[in-house]
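I hope you will forgive my troubling you with a question about protein structure. I should value your view on which stretches of the chain appear to form regular backbone elements. Here, with my thanks, is the record as I have it:
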Amino acid sequence: MSRPNPTSTARTGQLVAVTVLANLLITGLVVVALRWPSSEPIRLIEPAPSVPALVGEGEIGVERAVQSLDLAAIDSSNSTLVDINAASATDLDALPGIGPTLAGRVIRYREEHGPFSTIEELMNVQGIGTATLDKMRGLITVR
């Protein structure tokens, strides 16, 4: 019965670790590249555009299939997001980290200072800081 070589086992473990880290790095770079022109977060709940069925049959290459995607058909209206300039107290209260008191403060701030220009401007409302804003960042918009 042969015993495993400890050096070989250690190298295999290192190779697996390096492979996993490389995949994570590449995935992160792809996500950053996809987000780069926009400050809006990537929406995983929206359906991705479909690739032509021919790709599965091998009749055209993946590169050509990707080029044929109708990127203009992707819904960019963000209809699922809460517009903080139009939201009611109930809408705001439903956001994570916002209760009835903060919802009232947001509305009062909006009435006194006019519409929000950016979502970051919410941090001007007493009680909303970076942590609270980060909890709701992917759920709100400014229109």
Residues 51-55, 69-76 have pLDDT under 50 and may be disordered. The first helix runs from residue 6 to 35. Residues 82-141 form a domain with the DNA polymerase; domain 1 fold (CATH 1.10.150.280). The helical segments are 6-35, 54-57, 62-67, 89-93, 100-113, 130-136.
